[in-house]
């Protein structure tokens, strides 16, 4: 009975890992849509977000089903609650990728991102995607080493967001709408990154019993 | 044994409602800080957020201890999982209020023509957190319906805000960015309040609100 239970837990973790990979793809495409002013790619992001929404419900139902059939002990319960929380994080990541894609749609056929900021936004996209991939790897492997990489990328993301804000302070010449777009885009990428960190920290916590750090975004 | 579990669950739900009240106070203080450039109000909002986080950790630990001692049945488990999830919503509300307070603390001020919008956003957000707490206490699904209406108000205010910025805007890009982000924080605060009320509907009726 217990072995079946652990098999089911592994399956749930695997499903969550796959979902995180999908979230990474969604943000990758969203950034492509944004930088290329590409409506078709942007629409694809909505499809992936919808897919994540459905997958989340399936995993949640599965989790409750496992709970109903077994007599879980306290540590199992923590795992289950964590699985449901992680499902919520991944769902948000999909929504945030969709928000990025929507900025592209709103400014189409123009380009939302001023030329000067192309490299910065591209980097934010790259770091965000890599972080989601790392979070997926942690879910697949439960290896804390995979989580270590995330905190370096998270610092990089903070630095990029600060750099983005500095450009807004410094003789911004692209108009106020664009300033708003950039502020919100920075926020979307940052929150996406926060969720990737939360996922990895949650898994590490379950494996090691220790929370790697404050499980919330920094306030600065 | 089961009665004891139910009682402990009820206590956890009460605690959650108190945390929603704390989030309401935190967003109210943050709004004062923002509109009156009041640093004391900003500090008080940040302290409320800290208090909320400390109590939330206690709540989660109590929930897990409860599980270690009892053997809950499936329906109780769902309630318990929901309590932990709602804890995460309330925690985000506290963080978002803190973001608004931090923005005020940094010295960013709202341009005069926009103060009525932010005042109203603050009032609605505060009321929504209070209503979310009330929904948790009463398990009354009517509270949830009211929250939906308030959420529409926040969305409308945010659109109005964007309209204003897109019009005549002599305040510079940095202020535009700050104002847009603060609008976003209020909007997300409201979303989490709605999520709490929806979960109450689910606890009562077993149906997932869309």
Automatic annotation (TrEMBL), chain A:
SUPFAM superfamilies: PhoU-like (SSF109755). The gene is phoU_2. Residues 18-103, 121-201 form the PhoU domain. Plays a role in the regulation of phosphate uptake. Keywords: Cytoplasm, Phosphate transport, Transport. Belongs to the PhoU family. It is found in: Cytoplasm. InterPro entries: PhoU (IPR028366), PhoU-like_sf (IPR038078), PhoU_dom (IPR026022). The keyword Transferase does not apply. Signal peptide: none annotated. The keyword Cytoplasm applies. This is Phosphate-specific transport system accessory protein PhoU. The lineage of its organism: Bacteria, Bacillati, Actinomycetota, Actinomycetes, Cryptosporangiales. Homodimer.
């Amino acid at each position: 009975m217990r072995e079946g239970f652990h098999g089911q837990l592994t399956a749930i973790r695997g499903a969550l890992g796959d979902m995180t990979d999908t979230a990474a793809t969604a943000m990758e495409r969203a950034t492509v849509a944004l930088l290329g002013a590409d409506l078709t790619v942007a629409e694809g992001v909505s499809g992936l977000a919808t897919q994540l929404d459905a997958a989340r419900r399936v995993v949640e139902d599965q989790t409750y089903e496992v709970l109903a059939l077994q007599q879980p002990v306290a540590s199992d319960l923590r795992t289950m609650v964590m699985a449901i929380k992680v499902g919520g994080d991944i769902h948000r990541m999909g929504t945030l990728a969709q928000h990025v894609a929507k900025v592209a749609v709103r400014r189409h056929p123009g380009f939302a991102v001023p030329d000067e900021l192309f490299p910065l936004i591209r980097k934010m996209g790259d770091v965000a995607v890599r972080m989601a991939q790392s979070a997926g790897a942690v879910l697949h492997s439960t290896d804390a080493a995979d989580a270590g990489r995330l905190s370096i990328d998270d610092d990089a993301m903070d630095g990029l967001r600060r750099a983005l804000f500095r450009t807004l302070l410094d003789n911004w010449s692209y108009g106020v709408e664009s300033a708003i777009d950039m502020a919100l885009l920075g926020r979307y990428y940052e929150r996406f990154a926060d969720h990737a960190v939360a996922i990895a920290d949650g898994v590490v916590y379950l494996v090691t019993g220790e929370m790697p750090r404050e499980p919330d975004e920094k306030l600065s | 044994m089961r009665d004891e579990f139910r009682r402990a669950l009820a206590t956890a739900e009460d605690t959650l409602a108190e945390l929603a009240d704390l989030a309401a106070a935190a967003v109210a203080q943050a709004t004062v800080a923002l509109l009156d450039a009041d640093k004391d109000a900003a500090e008080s909002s940040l302290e409320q957020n800290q208090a909320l986080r400390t109590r939330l950790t206690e709540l989660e630990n109590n929930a897990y201890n409860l599980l270690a001692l009892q053997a809950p049945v499936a329906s109780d488990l769902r309630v318990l999982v929901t309590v932990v999830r709602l804890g995460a919503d309330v925690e985000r509300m506290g963080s978002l209020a803190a973001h608004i307070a931090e923005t005020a603390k940094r010295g960013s001020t709202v341009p005069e023509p926009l103060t009525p919008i932010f005042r109203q956003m603050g009032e609605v957000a505060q009321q929504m957190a209070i209503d979310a707490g009330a929904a948790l206490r009463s398990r009354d699904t009517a509270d949830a319906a009211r929250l939906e209406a308030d959420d529409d108000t926040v969305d409308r205010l945010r659109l109005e805000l964007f309209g204003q910025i897109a019009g005549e805007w002599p305040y510079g890009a940095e202020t535009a960015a700050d104002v847009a982000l603060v609008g976003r924080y209020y909007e997300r605060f409201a979303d989490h309040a709605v999520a709490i009320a929806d979960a109450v509907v689910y606890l009562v009726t077993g149906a997932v609100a869309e």
